[in-house]
Each structure stands twice: as structure tokens, then as C-alpha cells.
Amino acid sequence: MLSPCYSAPISNPEPFSNVSPFPSPPLSVDQELSIAVTKVINAFEDHEAGYPDSSQLEFQLKRQEYWEVLNYLEQNHSLKGWVDCKLHYNYDPTAELLEIRMPTRTHEILTVRIADEIKRSIHQFSTQCVLPSALPAFLDVIENLSSSDIFSPDDPDHKRCPDASFSHPDDQYPGIVIETSYSQRARNVEKGADEYIMISNGNIKMVICFDVEYRPNNQQVDTVSLWRPMHGQDQEGLFLRTECILDREPFRDATTKIPINPNHALTIPLNAFADTATLLANSIPLTDHATTIVTISFLTLANHVTAAQEWDIRRRNLAGRIAPTIVGERKRRRSSTPPEIMTREDERAWRQKERLSEKKAEQEDESWEE
């Protein structure tokens, strides 16, 4: 099992470059990890080893414990690199909730295909603009920031990791966030849409959620939903809330793979990509702000889901050509001199191997008892 002690750095790691983290008590040289923190680290290591308990996990974690997790990762560079590259995790300090998810291959392929479709649609619109319109230059610099973390300006520990996001370089927050709920619970996606808009104080202009989750006991349809911020005023004063403008609109039968509502389309206006002030500063007149920039038919969305699933099946079945092994060819691997002293990463790898052996033994015991 994971050792309960580790060497902690003196200060809390910087989770957000533009905002100073809340002050924390100095950590001792050998800080004992709580049970909650140990469970999170074990979950990270199980994912890294390829034996996760689930593709999505939730942990109740106090703010100080969340800092301990970040500190531990800062000292274990290979684990941190793997977590940053492969896992998406959100932390809500108010709810004291850490959500960890590992995107599936289908999830990742679908997200890439949808993001590419949006970029293609932007380019197509841009080429049709008549000069001297400022739109082509403006649209040309909109970038897909992929799964770059999004932090709250009010609390730097409040963090969310989208599947994709589109932003103009003049804005601090992306205008559009995309979530693909493949093998995730739909209620988490709805909660996430509200979280994105609220933690950005409405600077995120649109959240697009694709729900292609498999539900064996329910109707099998893939859907798309859209959320946007709504600013208003009531008797108590000004308010900001999240408004669902497209609620689980079906676009594909997940069983037959036949498109549903093929003539319907997902449309995205210009003012979803950037703030009004940014549009005006880039010489985009107010009359153009609501112009539809992206149009993707439901037929195209359905085809992307089908293609993503087929790619996943091909990779799992090891389909496709492969260069044959050359008879007699020897592999000369680069030689490395093993260090005389066991490094922190070596210790972690040894603990991980020990834990996996224990986990396998427990599973065999359960099978024997049955």
C-alpha cells in the first residue's frame, strides 16, 4: 500500500498563475497523508497502471487535503505528468468534491472530430466574408484550447477541466466549452454546464454537451444540449443564471446508428466565441454579433459518433495493416546506467506494483469463495 508519509514542499503549489492561492499552513517535512488523500493517490496510480476501479470517480476532499494531493503530485513528476496528460479532474472547494475521469478512446476521438468540425465551419464562413469585413481576421485567431484547465477568479482552487474549448486570445476565458459525456452520468454534465458558467461569472458564453452514454435499461438515443448565461434582474437585484436553450435534442439512435432529425442543425453565433467588448474592440459591429458562424447538421453529428465508435473497435481488435517483423533483425535498445540510490519515482513504482499484486490476490480470493 501507499506509504502514509512523504516529503512535502514548504509552500502550497501554484494552481493558477494569475491568482495567488489562499494561504495554507506550512507543511512539515514528513507530513502524514489522510485516508482521503491516500485514496485519491491510489486512484491516480491505479489509472496509470491500467487497473482503474471506474472511468469516473468522486472523492470528498477538504481544501487542505486537495492541497496535499497537489503537493504529492509536484514531488512525483512521472505521476504528475501522466495525470496532467491522461486524466481530467475537477475540484469544487465549496462542495469539497474532487471528480476524476479518464476519457475513453471513443470519447477522445469524438471530441477531436467535433472540434475539427467547428474549426472547419468557422473557416468556411470566413472565406465567404466580403472584404473589408473584420470578421476573417477575428475568426482566424480563435483557437481550440483542448482540455486546458479553467479556474474561478474568485477561488483559484475551484477548477474544471473541459473536453474542448474555443477562445479568442483577447479573452481570459474561453467563449465555448464542449463536454462529451461518453460513459458519464448525464446529471454530472448538467451540473458541469452550470459550474462552467458560474465559476467564470458568465464569461463562458456557451456550453455544448454531447450525451452518447450507453444506458441498457433506457431509450438508446444520442443527444446534444446547449447552455448559455442569462443576466437579469428581479426584486432582489441583479442575477446570473444558466439557461438551457437546447435540452437533450436527439440526433442519433444508438442501437441502429440511424440519424434522428437529420435536417436539424447545431448552430453557434459569433457572440458565443468572444465577449461583446472583445468583438467591438476588434471592429466587429454590434449588428454582426448574433450572426451564425457555425452550422453542423445532426446528420454530421451522428456520422461523427459512428466513426468514433468504429475507430475504437478497430483499435481494440488490432485491425489494420502492420509492417512485418524482419527476420533476423535484432533490437538494440538504448543502454541506461541504473542509479545506485532508489529515487522517489522508483519507490512509487515499487509501491504501485505491490498494491496491484495485493489487489489481484483479493480478486482471486473472491472468485475462490464464490
Write up this protein:
The chain is of the alpha+beta class. The chain has 9 helices and 15 strands. The protein has helices at about 35-50, 65-75, 75-85, 105-125, 135-140, 185-200, 275-280, 300-315, 345-370; strands at about 5, 30, 55-60, 90, 95-100, 145, 150, 160, 165, 175-180, 205-210, 220-235, 235-255, 265-270, 290-295. Helix 1 packs across helix 2 and helix 4 (about 105-125) packs antiparallel against helix 8.
Major sheet description: 6 strands, mixed
Report the order of strands and helices. EEHEHHEEHHEEEEEHEEEEHEHH
- Stretches with pLDDT under 50, minimum 5 residues: 1-29
Spatial strand sequence of the major β-sheet: 6-9-10-11-12-13
Q: Oligomeric form of this entry?
A: single chain
- CA-based gyration radius: 24 Å
Count the DSSP helices: 9
User: In terms of structural class, how would the helical and strand content be classed?
Assistant: alpha+beta
How far apart are the termini?
26 Å
Let me know the number of strands: 15
Mean pLDDT, to the nearest integer, reads 84
